[in-house]
Amino acid sequence: MNTQRNQQGFTIIEVVLVLAIAALIFLMIFVALPALQASQRDTARKNDVGIVSSAVTKFSTSERKPVSSAAGDDVKLRTYIDNLDQYADTDVVIGVVGTAPVKGKITVYPSARCDGSVAVADTNARKSAVAIMLDNGKSFYCNDAS
Q: Which residues pair with 111 in a beta bridge?
C-alpha cells in the first residue's frame, strides 16, 4: 500500500534557519544603533558650533570689537546666541589658543583660526575659532568665525 502524506507546515530546520537569520538582523541593528545615535549627536553639536560662530560675527559687528578674554565678553556674547540644541548658552566659554576644548562646552578662541580640527593663533585679531569635543571624547570639531 502506497500512501502519500500531505505535509503541511515547516520542518524544524526551516524554523531554526529563519530564527537564526532574524537574530543576525537584530544583532546588526543593535550594534549599529549606538553609532548612529553618536553620529546624530555630533551633527547637532556641529550645528551648535555654527550658531555660536554666527553669534561671534554678530558680536563683533554690533560691539565693533572682536571677542576677547576680557571680563564680560563671554556674557555679552551669550546674548547673541540663538537656540542651541545640545548645549545651554552658559556652556559657551572663551578659551586660550593651545588648549583643547572642554567636554560639554563650546569654546571660542579669540584671535585664532581653525587648522584642521584645532585652533591656532592668527595675526588677525578680528578672527575667532569655535571648537567642541565630539562624542567619542577624542576628536574635535573647529569652525572659523570672523
A: none
CA distances from residue 32 to 23, 27, 36, 102, 134 in whole angstroms, order as listed: 14, 9, 6, 27, 18
pLDDT grade, residue 71 (50/70/90)? confident
123 CB-contact burial (10 Å; exposed 0-12 / middle 13-18 / buried 19+): exposed
Count of C-beta atoms within a 10 Å radius of residue 74: 16
d(CA 136, CA 107): 17
Using CA atoms in the order 124, 91, 131, 40, what is the torsion angle rounded to 10 degrees? Answer: -150
Is the pTM for the entire model greater than 0.85?
no
The x, y and z cell numbers of residue 31, run together, are: 550594534
Q: Which amino acid is at 25?
A: I
Mean pLDDT value of segment 118-137: 89
pLDDT confidence band for 2 (50 / 70 / 90): low
